[in-house]
Design goal:
Layout: E1 2-4, H1 13-32, H2 48-72, H3 94-116, H4 121-128, H5 131-143, H6 153-172, E2 178-184, H7 188-192, H8 194-197, H9 201-207, E3 212-219, H10 220-223, E4 233-242, E5 260-269, H11 279-287, E6 295-301, E7 305-312
Antiparallel strand pairs: 1-7, 2-3, 3-4, 4-5, 5-6, 6-7
Helix pairs in contact: 3-4, 3-5, 3-6, 5-6
């Protein structure tokens, strides 16, 4: 449903359909009944086995991730002397949000992993809070050693911002009221330019920024306190881009496509606030903390175009 403001009123069928689909999803969630708010409880003493398990698990995933990135990003690149690269205007800044959300998730895992192992809040913030910056910094150094890439101060600032979002909220509120999230769906641009934006879902996840949407998900009860609103209900503001066939500027046969930004308003669920005694389900829900739940959404782009989306990914 697409309605231009100067041609048709926005409050037509698209909004009614958006409200209907949103209410239907909310009603389904409400029927579950047992979704109560998760109350964080941490041990009073350090559980060293948990600490060692956390360190080992993070190390395995991190080393595996570095190995995969070496295969995906650098396998066809020439090794060169260390150099810098200013990509702050690239991909309409969507890659910077990708850096921020990655660092945020890594810092979140480090901090809450230590807290659940009995480490004090102060020490957990010191050792776990900056984890996102520490883990992302070597990747930036690798970028500086290969042609076609380069060490980016913009990336480092984005990484630092993600970790600071975690640390700042813990210092101010003792909780994560704002969460960075992401949703993804391979775009039509990747189908038009697969050799550059990815020939399959996995490749496009890394290369096709048109398919990325980044969200700032806010606890609804913090904005409008109401006992009838479950503590796991969030409202989310999203940002994405479209018609990006190259990092900075479209060229050649893609020059006719106008690159533009897109903004979204939607509902969301805070997976970490859902209470469960099942350890496996708890681990799955915590791992999904940066995943935006598909919901109906309202989209706006600077071309004065409003869209009512169905289940937007």
């Amino acid at each position: 449903y697409i309605y231009r403001i100067n041609k048709q009123p926005f409050y037509h069928y698209s909004v009614l359909e958006y409200m209907r689909q949103t209410l239907a999803i909310i009603m389904v969630l409400r029927t579950l009944g047992t979704l109560n708010a998760q109350i964080q409880e941490f041990p009073d003493s350090i559980k060293w086995q948990r600490v060692n398990t956390l360190i080992a698990t993070e190390s395995v995933f991190y080393l595996g991730g570095l190995s995969y990135l070496q295969y995906v990003w650098y396998h066809d690149k020439e090794r060169v002397p260390f150099h810098y690269y200013n990509d702050n205007k690239g991909w309409l800044q969507l890659d910077k949000l990708g850096h921020a959300i990655t660092a945020y998730k890594e810092s979140y895992t480090g901090y809450y992993g230590l807290r659940k192992a009995g480490v004090s809040k102060k020490k957990a913030l010191i050792y776990g809070g900056p984890l996102g910056v520490f883990l992302q910094a070597p990747i930036e150094v690798f970028d500086g050693l290969y042609s076609g890439w380069g060490f980016s101060w913009g990336d480092m600032i984005a990484n630092t911002s993600g970790s600071l979002l975690l640390v700042g909220q813990e210092l101010l509120y003792g909780d994560q009221i704002l969460k960075l999230k992401m949703s993804y769906q391979r775009s039509a641009m990747a189908d038009l330019y697969p050799s550059y934006l990815g020939e399959n879902q996995l490749q496009s996840f890394f290369y096709d920024y048109n398919g990325h949407t980044y969200w700032l998900s806010v606890n609804l009860n913090r904005i409008a306190p109401n006992k009838k609103i479950p503590n796991w209900v969030n409202i989310a503001v999203g940002y994405s881009g479209e018609n990006m066939f190259n990092e900075f500027k479209n060229g050649g046969r893609y020059a006719e496509y106008e690159r533009h930004r897109q903004y979204y308003l939607s509902l969301d669920i805070d997976w970490t606030k859902i209470n469960t005694k099942n350890k496996i389900l708890r681990a799955v829900l915590d791992a999904m903390m940066v995943v935006k739940l598909p919901f109906p959404a309202i989209e706006f782009s600077p071309q004065n175009v409003w869209k009512g989306r169905g289940l937007y990914f």
